[in-house]
Each structure stands twice: as structure tokens, then as C-alpha cells.
């Protein structure tokens, strides 16, 4: 009997046979044990045309009770009465009256961004209380964001979600997917899947110079900002936590945090072009806190220009010269010489 049969539906049975007639023939039917689903109806439609029917009193539900069994008894009117029995076994036929149900409304999976193609992210599971083809479930994506469209695939038979290409945490930290489970009768259910991408240290820190002053005069005061630069790392957490260092063998410059991820390169002592190099080659290094550690470097060349901070110096403090008294006018009497450590016009010397 289909589980969709309406209450009041009747199902004819073959009646019992009794060789006696009249009052000694069959007078009544009953079922035992009594149940809430079926009762027996016995009567005559026309003279000599008797019927026996089972009458459905309550809707059937195969998922609640798939089978119903009871004993049908026929009783005659003799004295003493005689009876006969037969067993009635009713199988409730399934109809597709149950949609698939997911074990969770929302599934959350986590996957490393360097997980290989084919890696299993998670498995969605739906059940269906129907049987046969009505309970066979297939899975497919219902809605996938454009950025996730080609990154995942789902096995239509077991609901296993796999990667079809590597993910990139820096491009998208989360992917939202809707999965539909459909049974053989066309009923379906939808669940949400959230895939969280876990960061790995696959990006090296970057140093970006935003302002730079070069050349600088040698009389630049200590504490003067020579360059401003930003450090950044596309990774997250410890993988994106950066520390900076400066390589300066002459110890003339230092790094000073400015704000957020900005640093200033400043002078720490007076410069002297005549004592130190005219050009300073500095190496800036940024190191992250990942495992393994990644680093980035950049080089800065600072040119120091001359300032007129040196006076001319004679080769001698006192020149002693002997002259003949009869030297003609205009003769070379003697020559003095001075030098200047500066350069350019600052080193051009005139005598008077």
C-alpha cells in the first residue's frame, strides 16, 4: 500500500469460506491486535454479494513504520461459534515525501594556501529517509563566488570537496560556497560551506622608499631625516610581522620608527666629507617572523657634498727667504703655497 494513501481508502480482501449456511455461515470479521491504521469492514452490497475490506484510518508513513502485521479472524454464528484466521502483512510503499537533510547547516573547512591540487578540503553529508531511488543523493555546487568558481570541485556521489588549483591567502582569505543535495525524486536541500585559507610564509618583506634626499651637505645636522620608507609583507600574523635593520659600517646613520609601518633614515653624527667617504652605501634589511624566515633588502647610496668648512693652510707658517739687493724690479723674489681640503669653488685660493 503506498504511504500516500488517503484515510478512508479501502482495500478488498478475499473472504473466508464456510461450508455451512445460514446462521452457521460467516457472520463477522475482526483483526488482532488492533492497530491505529486499519480496521475491517464486512457486509453485503447486494443479495449474495458479500465483501471484506481493510479500511485505512490514519495516514501511513513508511519512515515511521514500514510494515504492519496482524491476524484477520472470521467467525460464524453457530453454537459454539467456529473461527478461522489468516495473517495479513502490509508493506508500506515508499514515495518521495522526504527531502535530503544535511548533517550541518554550515560547514567550515580550513586549508593551507600551499595545499596541493586534489587535496580534500571537507566532506558534506546529507541523508534522506526515503529508500531506493528516492533516497539516492547527488551533490553539486549551487552557488560559488566568482573568485572560487574554479578553485573547488565536488564529488557528486559522496560530497567530497577538493582543490582544483592552489589557493592564495593574499588574494582571498575566505571562500563561500553553496552546495545542493538532490534526491532521485527531485527534492533538494542547500547548505553553506565556508573555506578558510590559512596563511603560509610565502611572501618576503618589501621595502618601498617614499622620499629620499641625496646629495646632502656635509654640514647636515645630526637627526636630519635623509629617507622615509615603508615596509610591508602580504602575509598575516607572525608571517607578516617585520623587523628592520641597517648595515652602516661607519655608524653615521640609523633607523627610527616613524608611524605604523614607516621608518626614517636619520643622521646620528656630523658628516665630514674630508675624513669619511664622499658616497655612503647603506643596506636596509627587513626580516619577517615566519618559519622559515623570509627577508628583503634594498640599497641606498647617499652622496655627501662639500661645505666650505676648511680654511686654506700654507705649506709653512714662516717662510725665510734670502734676496739679492740688486734684483731687478719684477724678478721672482719667492713663492708661497696654500692648500684647501674643500673642493670646487670652496677650494679655489687667491693670495693678497
Output the radius of gyration: 50 Å
Report helical residue fraction: under 10%
Structural class: mainly beta
What profile does the largest beta sheet have? 4 strands, mixed
Q: Tell me, what's the shape?
A: rod-shaped
Strand content: 35-45%
User: What is the fold-level CATH name, i.e. the topology of the largest domain?
Assistant: Immunoglobulin-like
CATH architecture of the largest domain: Sandwich
H-E string: EEEEEEEEEEEEEEEEEEEEEEEEE
For the terminal residues, how far apart are their CA atoms?
Answer: 132 Å
Short overview:
The protein has no helices and 25 strands. With 352 residues, it is mainly β.
Descriptive notes:
By secondary structure, this protein is an all-beta fold. The protein folds into three domains: 9-91, Immunoglobulin-like (Sandwich), CATH 2.60.40; 101-198, Cadherins (Immunoglobulin-like), CATH 2.60.40.60; 206-305, Immunoglobulin-like (Sandwich), CATH 2.60.40. The chain contains no helices and 25 strands. Strands 8-15-14-11 form a four-stranded mixed beta sheet, with no helix packed on it. It has a four-stranded antiparallel beta sheet with strand order 16-18-21-20, with no helix packed on it. It is rod-shaped and about 185 Å long. The model has no long low-confidence stretch (mean pLDDT 90). It is a single-pass type I membrane protein.
